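Reminder to self: tokens first, then the designed residues, so the page reads top to bottom the way the pipeline ran.
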């Protein structure tokens, strides 16, 4: 199957915009620029000068938490979790997780996000929803110690990997995802680290999200959370660290040297009063910083364009330096950096890369004049400007229509579920 986009302006990478055509063959980008003579397209889409850019990568989220959107607001993380979220999650079923994930997938697709990194429960049902919706995802079974040293969750994580890693033509990957230092004891964390090593899987964990968590780890282990992970041999190039709000300079150096990745979630950190991650310091230590929304219960949406703009503006306000976190850097975080951390050859529109592509309207008031499209993508565009979303060479959404999701069914099922929760 060949698809040809004509008359487009193409954000090939965060450093380059060209005018011309883009061809897709099966799941890969075949070319950009001039159309090769032998390229015969089954479908031709005239982009009318609109912007084609890489689909956004949401590098840290909990998809099914869309069910708990607006259910627990204006609370700090510890009471948000203990008093509100954990009691709700105790009632969660596999079917709930499926429909919550379908709702999340619809929001992602409509908002130009093509790839997500998710950590949650009932992940076999989440994987099924991801398979059905057509998005790209790295998924992990949340692991906590509980009352069996995490053994039951670790077993689920292993069977999830065996069943779904590489599934759907490589669209789904499985990571090993211990929740955090404060919810896993040393035995659980070490076992998760071992399992990830044996499987060659990525490790995804919350780290130094709040000041309290960071300080309590130091009291428990005489090490910061980053140094503690390193002491367990769990800080390496397959490690993805969500938040890192309270890491210090030594932690940043350690994370940078280990080539681990940081998943920056500015909006969730602000809303939960957790603080602002020291992203300029992370960049100075050459850390691969990616961008995520976190779950919809702490954000309260999965809008990566909001996150993109926040990443490019927030740190300027903190440091007083308007050159901190440029549009180019923020765009890299939301595209190529995230894809790299997750191990997908995506996040740039070059021949041979996975065809995860979005089309952004340029003939809407907030995008005119569309002269610097890289800046426009960060500072002017919104999720509402997404006209088309393609993942793995397949168009999932176009001009308001979902091709893989029965959106009315999703609304009905989610309505039924939240009624049961009394939300
Ligand atoms: Ni999270």
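Designed residues (423 positions):
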């Amino acid at each position: 199957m060949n698809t040809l986009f004509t008359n487009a302006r193409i954000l090939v990478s965060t450093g380059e915009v060209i005018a011309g055509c883009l061809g897709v063959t099966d799941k890969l980008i075949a070319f950009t620029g001039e159309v090769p003579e032998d390229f015969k397209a089954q479908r031709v889409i005239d982009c009318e000068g609109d912007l084609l850019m890489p689909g956004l990568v949401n590098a840290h989220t909990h998809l099914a938490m869309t069910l708990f959107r607006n259910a627990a607001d204006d609370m700090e993380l510890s009471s948000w979790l203990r008093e509100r979220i954990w009691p709700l999650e105790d009632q969660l079923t596999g079917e709930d997780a499926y429909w919550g994930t379908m709702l999340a997938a619809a929001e992602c697709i409509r908002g130009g996000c093509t790839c997500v990194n998710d950590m949650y429960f009932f992940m076999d049902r989440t994987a099924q929803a991801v398979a059905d919706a057509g998005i790209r995802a790295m998924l992990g079974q949340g692991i906590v110690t509980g009352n069996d040293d995490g053994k039951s969750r670790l077993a689920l994580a292993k069977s999830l990997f065996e069943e779904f890693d590489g599934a759907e033509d490589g669209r789904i990957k499985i990571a090993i995802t211990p929740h955090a230092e404060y919810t896993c004891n040393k035995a659980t964390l070490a076992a998760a680290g071992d399992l990830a090593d044996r499987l060659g899987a990525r490790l995804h964990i919350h780290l130094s999200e709040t000041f309290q968590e960071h300080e309590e780890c130091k009291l428990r282990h005489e090490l910061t959370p980053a140094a503690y992970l390193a002491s367990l041999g769990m800080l390496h190039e397959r490690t993805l660290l969500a938040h890192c709000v309270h890491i210090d300079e030594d932690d940043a150096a350690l994370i940078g040297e280990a080539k681990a990745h940081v998943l920056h979630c500015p909006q969730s950190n602000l809303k939960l009063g957790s603080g602002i991650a020291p992203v300029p310091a992370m960049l100075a230590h050459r850390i691969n910083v990616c961008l995520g929304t976190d779950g919809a219960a702490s954000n309260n949406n999965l809008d990566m364009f909001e996150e993109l703009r926040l990443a490019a503006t927030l740190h300027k306000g903190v440091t007083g330096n308007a050159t901190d976190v440029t549009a180019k850097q923020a765009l890299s975080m939301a595209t190529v950096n995230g894809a790299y951390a997750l191990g997908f050859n995506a996040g740039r529109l070059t021949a041979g890369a996975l065809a995860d592509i979005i089309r952004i309207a340029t003939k809407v008031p907030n995008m005119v004049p569309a002269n610097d499209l890289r800046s426009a993508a960060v500072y002017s565009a919104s999720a509402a400007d997404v006209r088309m979303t393609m993942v793995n060479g397949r168009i999932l959404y176009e001009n308001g229509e979902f091709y893989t999701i029965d959106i009315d069914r999703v609304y009905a099922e989610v309505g039924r579920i939240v009624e049961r929760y009394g939300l």
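Residues 60, 62, 206, 242, 294-295 surround nickel (II) ion (CB under 6 Å).
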